[in-house]
Amino acid sequence: MTILNARNLSLEEVHSMFGFQEQYSDSFSNYLSLEPLTEAEQQELKQIQHDFDRYLTAGKVYEGLVKFLAVAPLLRLAGFYRYPIEIGLGENIADIEVEDEDIKIKGRFDILVISKAKHTKPEIYFLVLLIESKNSQIDISTALPQLLTYSYIDNQKSIWGLATNGRSYQFVYIEQGNPLIYYLLPELNLMERERSTQLLQVLKAICQL
Q: pTM for this structure?
């Protein structure tokens, strides 16, 4: 049996092995109800921007700093630390065996958010993949193959995924079906006023699903 690491797969390989099809969506409102931010939320968001920018201007922000300076504060502000949400960090994914092929895929996700609400059947999954921030020069789409592979979880009608380097945020909405379809949503940016506001609105809306 061939054992592959999800981190090393190309987008073409992921499409071929799992049958994913890519589509684009130009609006989050097709999937989520976005609510205005409170004044307090806007002020906290500005503080997150300020803290992250101080490190960003000093040079490359490594993956660990992306988590602590940007992603973790945003998740807290959006409500992800409250019941019934549960967060897992840096855990191994279950081995994925590719149907009709002698291939097993292993990997490790950065953050997995699961809603344990009683009314939610099946549970709602939200996957977050972190990559290092090299100012504005890194293309976060390079994380897409890994994110899609990790989203290959049985019995989940839909999954939200997020790839981020702390500055740019690429949300992906994955729908189970035949074929598997994933929708790329408009890229958001923590350091821009309007798109950072929408970023927090999107995170809040996902948290409330």
A: 0.89
